[in-house]
Amino acid sequence: MKKLLLLLCLVAGLAASQNAWAQIRGYVLDADNQRPVAGAAVSVKGKNTGTVTNAEGHFELKTSTPATLTITLVGYARMETEGTTNEELRIFLVPSIEELNQVVVTASRVEESILRSPVSIEKMDARQIQQTPSANYYDGLVNMKSLDMVTSSITYKQINTRGFNTTGNSRFLQLVDGVDNQPSGLGFAMGNLFGPHDIDVESAELIPGAASALYGPIAFNGMLNTRTKNPFAYQGLSVQTKFGFNHIGDGTEPGAKPLYDLAIRYAKAFNNKFAFKVNASYLKGTDWYANDYTDIDPNTSPENRGPANPGKNQLNIYGDEVAQTIPNIGRVSRTGYEEKDLATYGVYSLKLNAALHYRITDKLEAIYQGNFNQGTAQYTGSNRFVINDFKFIQHRLELRGSNFYVRAYSNQELSTNSYNTRALGQQINRTWVRDLAGNVVTPDKADATWFERYTAAYNGLVNGTGSKNHDAARSFADQGRVLPGSEAYEAAKDRLIQTRGLAGAGILSECSLRHVEGMYDLSSALKVFNLQVGGNYRKYYLNTGGTLFDDKDKNLTNDEYGAFAQASKSLFKEHLKLTVSGRYDKNENFVGRFTPRASAVFSPTENHHIRASYQTGFRNPTVADQFIKLNVGPIIILGGAPVNSAGLNAYENSVTIASFSQFASAFGADMQKGVPFPQAVANNKDKLVKSNVPYIKSEKVKSYEVGYKGLLGQKFLFDINYYFSEYTDFMINTVVARAKSDILLADGSVNPAAAAELLGADRQLFQLYTNAADKVSIQGISAGLTYALPKNYKLTANSTWINFNLRDADANNVPAFNTPEWKTNLIFGNARLTDKIGFNVAWHWQSAFDWYGTFTENRPGRVQAYNLLDAQISYRIPGLKTIVKVGGSNITNKYVVQAYGSPAVGGLYYISLNFDQLFR
């Protein structure tokens, strides 16, 4: 690789010596009012050379001549002109509807008009990022057509498109400057906790739906491609300071909590050859509270659930999952701790970034970029986890030409202080339990001893405690309980966070990945048609010390590679564009997969475009899907690789969770009627069904799409698409219950001994990774419009309908859809209400739906319909190159839950100052 890079540099250097270098300078002005246009991108066509106009509209760049300049800015028509050194250029840009001349790169991996994209694509550009009323650009993505967003934490929001959403979405690819933004141990991108700050984001492009044909297996549901600002083009000092507050009216003391966000960016270029940039940002605030205390105990009939239920399992209270059915008493659970006393609600995000760019020639550029990120967030997975002081380090080295690139990067995660909140509550509960003689027992005996105390008190065997009284029995069993805020509680909490494995709550992860990829555009050489080819190789290195994966004292790695090709051709005087793509991917543990894509775009006129496409996608199991082996108290999360489950008997000797719930509920009802324990077991054991869970394999999708995008009257942009997708072998989590005794007897009937074990301490729940055997489908329609009104007002509206068709599939054996049937966005604003004042208002609404997640063992929880209203007003101070913005997210302060078990999210209000392009 080093020899190849040196050879490329030598060849490029010789080529550069044949060209004459010249300084081209000029001004870019608004054609309507003759005023300077700041921030316009001026680039040399076919080369990497470019810059951005300053506040006076002036630009300078050095390049070889002759040169064709391309000038672009959102809100103006794209323009090309010949560069000359004879005099200063005066270039006039014609205002135009923003989306008319948008250029995107994600849909086909090459630059093209968004109107002629072969598949649906959405874009948030630099101006929209600046004008978003949301707290940051990432939150503002919710207003994109087809996109779903769920909040687990103020610093962690997860996005998805076209259904099958989760709070940790490994089916959706997020790239930042071409780098996969996932920590390899987690197996999914943590929203924007480890991404760029707004101050350095140039654009974000979204592909809804499968993009595997070009981007590989992770882009199964879609992808987000974020591009940061090039230091050659965006120079100078930018500073953004933001102060805000949240937790208004949520009943907590002392009430509203502050939020701080400070970001600094500096970039400088020297002689148009070398440039660098540095970024630093720090955000600090108080997280949203998960405080839903609904009783969700599956072993209690719904009408008997609630605060008075002695066996209650409250959603955001942890430790009460530990429960037993006591003969002649019934279902009893331990007293748990509220999440607010276990979690780390003081969250922060530190982001440091530096990049060096060197233009070897005007067609060849070398780039090094390093990122250091550290932060705290809550994550709703199979439990509520605190991603605490999590460090994420990235390095990127790239050689980029006008028609190729070679890129290598690494992601390294360092998590030494993260922990499982639910496990923490359970373990604290095991530190203080006393036996009947008043002596504190060891943690391994704590749960059993607590239930013994409860049983003795309830049966009247304890002096001073009345019999048949659940409150009195609980009070006696809880004697010695350490209380939140006490010295003993805090000491136990700190110790258990640092204790990993079954005896504690701590989680260690020092996983990493190494990735190398490249692409070459052969179009200029072939001339007859356009052709791009590329490929990549990736290797994961797992190191969790056995706390997440089965990797203790093992050198656990995972390799995969892929290659793709894409050909396109325009016919009939550019009225028809045909594109075919194909990609082959191979993971060392699974068979190779080929994913083709074909599309056609028919353009009867310049402003009207009809597209149709056939796409395929697939996803290999992530390393977590394969190797996770995590004991979280009531359940063990177990990856689907056969070697991972050896000796646990989870696949071989377990019952389905649905049948166990029916059995336990019917058993409990009999016990309430006074039926003896053995008879209650015998009456209901045949409700148990032995599980038949296959080991995991890849999942696949086929998707068909038609759409139209057109511009009417130069002021009205309309976009609509319909898609239909079929899924097979969809990866799912299924929960089973294992007994020690054989589930079935020799005659095939349910073993009473195993049934009895499933009701007590010998039961072990497993969350298994497997595939749905059934075929399911989705279909959807998305439509959007943008209307440029007089006097700079702009109206954008979009709506999405999506329908999940279960067909003949077993509802208990398909993945969680977790997507509202309807969602709508409406955005109205004016960036230039006056020379100094602008505003923007965004409204989001979505319908109610059932959320299925491993946090509740795949039992549904209702996410109610809600709407969010964001708004901002900005004031420009040209002399100080400053914009003052006052705004808020969810300004009506209606607390909404976006994923069942996750926190309720209220209003966040802020004021920000953005100093831009100082010392440019």
From TrEMBL:
Positions of the TonB-dependent receptor plug domain: 116-222
Membrane topology: Multi-pass membrane protein
Residues in the signal sequence: 1-22
Domain TonB-dependent receptor-like beta-barrel: residue ranges: 371-890
Compartment annotation: Cell outer membrane
Domain of life: Bacteria
Keywords on record: Cell outer membrane, Membrane, Receptor, Signal, TonB box, Transmembrane, Transmembrane beta strand, Transport
Family: Belongs to the TonB-dependent receptor family.
PANTHER family: HEMOGLOBIN AND HEMOGLOBIN-HAPTOGLOBIN-BINDING PROTEIN 1-RELATED, TONB-DEPENDENT OUTER MEMBRANE RECEPTOR
Stated name of the protein: TonB-dependent receptor
Taxonomy of the source species: Bacteria, Pseudomonadati, Bacteroidota, Cytophagia, Cytophagales
